[in-house]
Amino acid sequence: MREVYFIKQNKEKWLGIEQVIQGKIKKNPDDLSSLYINLINDLSFAQTYYPKSNTTVYLNHLSSQIFQKIYKTKRVEENRLFYFFRTEVPLLIYQYRRYLMYAFLFFILFTSIGVLSGAYDKDFAKIILGEDYVNETIENIKKGNAVGIYQSGSTWGSTIGIIFNNIGVGAKLYIYGITGGVGTLFALLSNSVMLGSFQYFFYDYGALKDSARGIWLHGVFEIFAMVVEAMCGLILGASILFPRTFSRFNSFKTGFKDSFKIFLSTIPFTICAGIIEGYVTRHALKMPLVVNLAIIFSSLAIIGFYYFVYPSVVYKRINNQTNHAVL
């Protein structure tokens, strides 16, 4: 079947599904499940005969939307907050997973720029981090205490300040997406270049190992959350730039609602990062190396699993449940 005829044959049905997604037409859970199965059949056909077509991309997006609509109409038996983190957010992350990949690719690129800039310009770290901060850190390195900067101030005072600062940084990465994603990328560039030059600075002074033992105790949660927040900004920007068949306003409403939920999921990790930085990082060089590594890699395993692995697990579980319920 030619693609034009395939579109003409199913166009009205797809437009009707869009209206269901937008809430203009109400459907009960059984009707929604039937729509989902019907749409999946169309998607499978398109993937087989028009794999690189915009029609396939459109149907994939539409099926993701109707899939979530099914579970929003179901009664949530469990605690609402538990459901939010256990099911709702992972499904959204799975739906927008390519934006997470984009955010990480930009993060790696921008961090590399920071490393290369630090390597070719020895004063670059002072420009980015501030001369007083760099000079104080150099003195700490000479004293054999590369993470001495984290030992100033009270534990609880530092923790509160760090948490609010990091939430503010994350909020900017997200909200700046309103500029079509340009503001988000600029904010990510600034923070990533700072990280890259910061790490190279320690390498240049022969203190990379000691700095990593301290910085990455809290940095795993903090930096990973920052990238996810950039992902949210990109989703918001894409909803404005690429509304597909939706009106730009309806596309923005959906993009904002979905990205904001993902953004909220980063807050617990940001708070944990602040607590670790305020209470644990200051003791980094006093604890055994195995303890440092255990905290760093367990943190990476937890947040990496939640954003990279668990969404696929939830999607497959829910998808199987839906198919069984329809059958």
What's the number of domains? 2
* Main sheet characteristics: none
Name the helicity range: over 70%
Radius of gyration, CA atoms, in whole angstroms: 23 Å
Question: What string gives the helices and strands in order?
Answer: HHHHHHHHHHHH
- Counted by DSSP, the helix tally is 12
- The count of strands amounts to 0
> Structural class from helices and strands?
mainly alpha
User: What separation lies between the terminal Cα atoms?
Assistant: 28 Å
Task: List unreliable stretches of 5+ residues.
Answer: none
What would the principal axes of the Cα set say about the shape?
elongated
Q: Estimate the strand proportion.
A: under 5%
Mean pLDDT: 87
What does this 3D model show about the protein?
By secondary structure, the protein is mainly alpha-helical. 81% of the residues lie in helices and 0% in strands. Helix 8 (155-175) packs antiparallel against helix 11 (248-279), helix 9 runs antiparallel to helix 10 and helix 10 packs parallel to helix 12 (289-326). The chain has two domains: 3-75, no CATH class; 93-313, no CATH class. The mean pLDDT is 87. The protein has helices at residues 3-21, 29-49, 54-73, 80-95, 97-120, 124-129, 131-142, 155-175, 182-204, 208-241, 248-279, 289-326.
